[in-house]
Amino acid sequence: MSAFLEYKEVIGEGDFVLAFIGRDNIKPIIVKKDDILNTRYGAFAHNSMIGEKYGSQITSLKGYGFIHLLHPTPELWTLSLPHRTQIVYTPDSSYIIQRLNITAGSRVIEAGTGSGSFTHSFARTLSKTGQLFTYEFHESRYQQAKAEFELHSLTNVIATCRDVCKKGFVIDGYESGCDADSIFLDLPSPWEAIAHLPQVISKSKRVGICCFSPCIEQVIKTAEALKNHGWSNIEMVEIAGRKWEARKEMIRDVSDVIGRLKDIKRRKEEGIEIRDKLQNQNQNQKVGEKRGNEDSNEKEQFVKKTRIEREEKGFNPFGKGLRIKEGDEAYNWKDISEPETEVKSHTSYLTFAFKNAPTKPIVNHQS
Amino acid sequence: MDLSLESAEKPVSFAKETGVITVGQYVLIKLPSKGLKIVETRSDGVINLGKFGSFEVNGILGFPFGQSFEISADKKVSPVKSLVFELEEEELENMDQETSRESTPILELMKNSSETNRDIIDIGSKIQGITSEEIELFKKQNNDNGEILISKIIESHKGFNKKTKYSQEKYITRKQQKFMKKFTVEYLSSSNLLKYYEEKDLSKILNLSEETLGLMLNLLDIRPGGKYFVVDETGGLILYAMMERMKGEGLIVVGHENEHPNFNLLQYSNYTESAINSMIKPINWLQFFEPENEKLIFNEQTKEAIEELRPQKKLQYYRRQKRIIEINKTIDFVTGKDSQFDGLLYCSTIYPTTLIPNIITKIKGSRPIVVYNQYKEILVELQHLLSKNLNVLAPSIMETRARPYQTIPGRIHPLMSMRGGGGYLLWGTRVYPKEGGVIAVGRGFVRRNERKKQKLEKEEDNDDNNKNN
Ligand SMILES: C[S@@+](CC[C@H](N)C(=O)[O-])C[C@H]1O[C@@H](n2cnc3c(N)ncnc32)[C@H](O)[C@@H]1O
User: Fold this and answer.
1) If you write DSSP's letter for every residue of A137-190 in order, what string do you get?
2) Which CATH number fits the domain B190-398, given the four candidates 2.40.180.10, 3.40.50.300, 3.90.1210.10, 3.40.50.150?
3) What percent of chain B clears pLDDT 70, i.e. is strictly above it?
4) Interface of A with B in 115-174 (CB under 8 A)
5) Considering CB atoms only, which of B223, B376, B380 is closest to A124?
6) Where are the domains positioned within chain B?
7) Which spans does this entry mark as compositional bias, Basic and acidic residues (chain A) (predicted)?
8) How high is the ipTM of this complex?
């Protein structure tokens, strides 16, 4: 049973789990009796996972530090998989699936397989009733991907080691074609592969294609090849995906600033008074030693007083110096959204095109 | 419980013809003006496209989706290569070389052009030597033939030869959009249905864009056979897209705020009513929150009494019975105390913070929570709320925007304008927080509290770590 094709509720031995350690730290594991998962938050016994529901939180062997046990999805897999190549991320892959109208039962050709990121997403959506043909010419990358698909029981994926630009897409058992209704090409020269498509695409359905290329020069060659091979509705788009986190920004009122400035001024004056006083006292130090205690008392009281003032006023008289916890209820906050510090400003250009099915003459039964 | 919602009357068919135009289908019609229309292909029917003319449905049957047609005077159609005439790069070159390529009247007219637009004097409409009255007259005289009309317009355009080939092409395209009686027939996919509302009334679909629809469906991890809780205020666009992806397998419970749900757009789905009813189960919020009071009571009649009913009444009786059983089943299923659903998709103008925490408990562990809103601010508030609610792991807000390009080799550039907006998504995963701290049962109370504190501190550490990443 594949965790990418069917749902499971309770974790058993041999099940595939994504251990969620942190947002950028998701570790794929196969649950095995007596195994231990080591993380920076502690060691977690696989035994403690068996029998738990997917979505459960478990604690480390030491009793503190925790992780969540997640059910695999292609979207989480994309965030956790071992990169062997550049991969296609969810904003791009989801758009391609939507625009090519891929559904349960679709038949899709993908080249090259690369790290198999998009393969998982395709496989889930076209489901057990569909079929995915994926091609990769790099031998060891192909072997790794194939082993991974087997481990994940992606029974609807047929992986082939092949240079599709030179040898095309026809494979054993599918000599008369793959009956593919959608094509996805993520390789450096898609225009060389396009010529081989007529043998394998559907003869009865409208066929869609998407070529995924980072450079505009590739788009030009691809668009020309598509046109020359009878594809129409050629259009290129770019997808920009962004992520935001909800945060809170302190509402710092100008009247508070004025209050603070006044406060500084006042304390300065008080400070001068105290300093003068202390100086006088220092000069008299030799006379009475015990005064030292009283000095520190006085300082302490001064610090205490400002703290109370701060709390009463609802602003921080020290300005930015003091660390305040975001959302501290003693202050006013505005909900804001913070963008990621670095964004993927360009993944690739997506060139789409379509090919109509052949006309099916209608026998007019009415005449 | 699991099977309690499956309909007994299966199988219903979810197979659809997506390759060629068949009779009895809703299809999308694209007009040269870029306008869109949804029409039904009734056998022997006639479809009226307004100023672009009328045509007989039988003429388009059997042709593939994506095919363009031209309407002739007698409502007949003939297939044509494309909606508007587009010049190929090489055709432009070939024209200069007087090759033997077949030429159209318009291509002939383009044989004279200028290297640049520099000789064009901008004298506005005077440069066009034909008036709109003359155009109307000419149309009548020539059986409404678009191509002849456009040739005529070009002939009387004094500055046409001074234009470059590119501007000539642009000019011709504009005239074609106005006068050609052509159209293209497309399969009504969820994306095409969305495009139609993009043209017609975006507010009806809450400003949702195609790319956001795609992202939301993938984040929801839709699988055939899954059971989803959906709130769809787009009139059924999202439901339509989900039904297409699931191809009839699985269930969608739809929370709604009226006495009867509004899935108007599903009428275009080409699915039968019983197919729709077998997959989609509505429940309103009153039924959701007060199931005890809202379950319907059916006054069962004796067999004899039923037999005595008139056929019409009898049918009504059974229909009512079926409906009530369905509603009660749905209420039981949704309000049962176990989590039931493989995902939540929320697309509603009901303020999400007021409703979502109540639905989350119905979602199974490690299943996606996806919330759509037109406005990021509303999702920010929701993310704050969910970050405190330990039932949702790592919620964050996502945005996706597609930027379309003019894709003609040699003249590639982003389109000068594109639609703004398209909405935002909040995506998180439903989890089960560990109950009662971390200590196994049977340890001392004091130590237990100690550990609990330790755990909480650690938790904050983890949180900090998450935020920093
Ligand atoms: C960028 S990666 C694909 C990544 C993949 N889409 C993913 O999401 O993981 C491109 C892959 O195409 C393969 N490739 C390049 N040219 C090829 C060809 N002619 N035939 C088959 N595979 C090819 C490369 O070896 C590489 O692994």
Assistant:
1) -SHHHHHHHHHHHHHTT-TTEEEEE--HHHH-S--TT-TT---BSEEEE-SS-H
2) 3.40.50.150
3) 80
4) 121, 124-125, 127-129
5) B223
6) 101-167, 190-398, 441-469
7) 287-300
8) 0.88
